Amino acid sequence: MRFTEFAVAAAGLHISTAFARDGQQQQPLGVESRPASNSAKKQPNIIFILTDDQDLHLNSLDYLPFIKKHLIQKGTSYKRHFCTTALCCPSRVSLWTGKQAHNTNVTDVNPPYGGYPKFLSQGFNTNYLPVWLQEAGYNTYYTGKLFNAHTVENYNSPHAGGWTSSDFLLDPFTYMYLNASYQRNQEPPVSYEGQHTIDVLTKKAYGLLSEALTDAESRPFFLGIAPVAPHSNVDIKSLDGDPDDIENLVSFTPPIPAKRHEHLFKDVKVPRTPHFNPDSPSGANWVRTLKKQSTENVEFNDHFYRQRLRALQGVDELVDGLFSLLEKHKLLENTYIFYTTDNGYHIGQHRLQPGKETGFEEDINIPLIVRGPGIPAGEISNAVTTHIDLAPTILKLAGAPSRADFDGEAIPLREEEQSHAVEKRHEHVTVEYWGFAASEGKLFDKGETRLYLNNTYKALRIIGRDGAYSFYYSVWCNNEHELYDLKTDPYQLRNLLHAEEKDPETLLGVPFTKVVARLDSLLFVLKSCKAQTCTQPWRALHPEGGVQNLQDALASRYDEFYVSQQKRVRYDRCELGYLLDAEGPQFETEGLVYRQGARWDEWV
User: Fold this and answer.
1) What is the spatial distance between Cα 93 and Cα 84, in angstroms, rounded to a whole number?
2) Phi, psi dihedrals of residue 6, rounded to the nearest 5°
3) Under a CB-based contact definition with an 8 Å cutoff, are residues 300 and 441 in contact?
4) Which of 190, 232, 532, 569 would be a feasible disulfide site paired with 440, CB 3.0-4.6 Å?
5) Which residues does this entry mark as bearing 3-oxoalanine (Cys) (predicted)?
6) R_g of the chain computed on alpha carbons
7) What is d(CA 155, CA 496) in angstroms, rounded to the nearest whole number?
8) Are the C-beta atoms of 270 and 301 separated by less than 8 Å?
């Protein structure tokens, strides 16, 4: 058995926590229990844990015993939960605002198209979740990574709004596991060189929880905890130079675990699924040009995978200590705990080096587990949910009004809500990306590049009721198309729209081309949708009703409307950010709607 002890001082309270990796109970010590009066409040406490780049499809959750114990076994896991942009900053801004990236226009990790400066310039510093929660009567706390390009230079110009108390992890040290810089409230940044960033974060998270307890009897609290694990370790070589010359600016290495975890999982390897380093290329655009990885490359990627699992052990311990504190203070009966990540991750699938930023299932289908009052324990929900839905969900829990400009809708949490969702909830996800894709592992082929700049695409993921159908459809900025039938091809190895593939004659019992036409029209609406149109796109196409899902849209009376009349998704050129004049025709100005009498009209 190996233990490490943390002394956490916050608001005059000292918490010492022993962590064990052998499944033994952890117990925070030294804080006197408080009365359980908070449980009588109508407004619940909310804790939101947001990891960085954690996978669902590479089975990382299988190696986290405390998360299994406290969250998976005591809460509901959402197996069809998706991010809508597979990149850190755009995904986080969408999460905290309830808006698609094409409506936030924060589409990258750095300026000019993304990062904290773009978040500020878009006006969100006074118009996102923590601000709304404060207006609803909450104290709000946060520690860890907020956004990329939130730095030791710009953290106070202005400070991030909406937080009662905060302790942010700052660039350019965000991804340095042993050289982090944190910045508390209005104070200057402090370097923690030589200390493991997850251990530092753990102390800060427990400290903020202690602060929240001082007012817990009179005000509910929201606590966000955002560890950097299992993101790659990134060392900054230079702050100047060509941003496209990434090799001279940064150095990517596998995550660095705490010393107590570095011996774990020595024989574990990346799951050898059919799409792991396949013999034949797959996908479209630059992905289809990738070479099969060498044995040496695969062995390194297995090491990379193990380092991710090891780095996550500190997060697992943090969660266990957190639940010990919640139990000690009798807060669990009135607290909701969310566990998710900003985007997924791939290692070797489709011959890809470690990274994210694609529309493949590994990158967009991500963990979401929720535990709290009334939420079924040990259950799996098949409702289609996204990061755009999380802000509406949290506001609903807080008893605060929803917002008319949300692009998502509240996630069904309680059993009766989940039953209703089976019949009524939307079945689609809008997926979008602009800019580059980066390989974060080691490059073994001399001709291999670390950055692929033509990685802009629009896509949709659609899963029918009871799994009747399951498709991924995308259009790249070079106007290549992809379509995968995940019922017959769950590993997305056969792009049905690639020139080398023979199109199937039928899908869902109708001619193949007619299904593609419906999917393209649905994407045509979603790629620039706003507010309710994002959750009810069929209503935009069929304002008189009659079509609520793909199956309804396949009725033969709509064939000419979809196949011959509707505009098609296309790009005019590839860009690194969201520039409307590069995005081809827009449904709002050039699309058609179906009307029963006139059959179809121009969109007005």
Assistant:
1) 11
2) -115, 135
3) yes
4) 232
5) 88
6) 24
7) 47
8) yes
d(CA 228, CA 159): 21
- The structural architecture, per CATH, of the domain 45-424 is 3-Layer(aba) Sandwich (3.40)
Mean pLDDT in consecutive groups of 10 residues from the start of the chain, 604 residues: 30 34 36 37 91 98 98 98 98 98 97 97 98 98 98 97 98 97 98 98 98 91 98 80 64 96 97 98 96 97 98 98 97 97 98 98 98 97 97 98 97 88 89 96 89 95 93 98 97 95 90 97 98 97 95 96 96 97 96 79 54
- Measured in degrees and rounded to the nearest 5, phi and psi for residue 201 equal -60, -40
| Domain ranges for the chain | 45-424, 429-602
**Residue appearing with tokens 């049905």:** 496
**Is pTM, for the whole model, over 0.85?**
yes
Residues designated catalytic: 88
Burial state string for 565-574 with b = 16 or more CB within 10 A and e = fewer than 16: ebbebebeeb
**Cα–Cα dist 6/350, whole Å:** 42
Q: Report the alpha-carbon distance of residue 38 to residue 333 in Å, rounded.
A: 9
Please spell the DSSP secondary structure of 104-151, one letter per residue. H---BSSTTTBHHHHHHHTTGGGSSHHHHHHHTT-EEEEEEE--TT-B
Phi-psi region of 197 (alpha: psi -120 to 50; beta: other; left: phi over 0): alpha
* Chain length of the chain: 604
pLDDT score recorded for residue 447: 81
- Can you say how many angstroms the Cα of residue 301 is from the centroid of all Cα atoms in its chain? 23
Give the sign of the dihedral formed by CA 546, CA 548, CA 552, CA 555: positive
**CA angle centred on 45, ends 91 and 149, rounded to 5°:** 30
Whole-angstrom Cα distance, residue 60 to residue 55? Answer: 6
Q: Which amino acid, 244?
A: D
Strand 451-452 to strand 457-463: parallel, antiparallel, or no bridges (unpaired)? unpaired
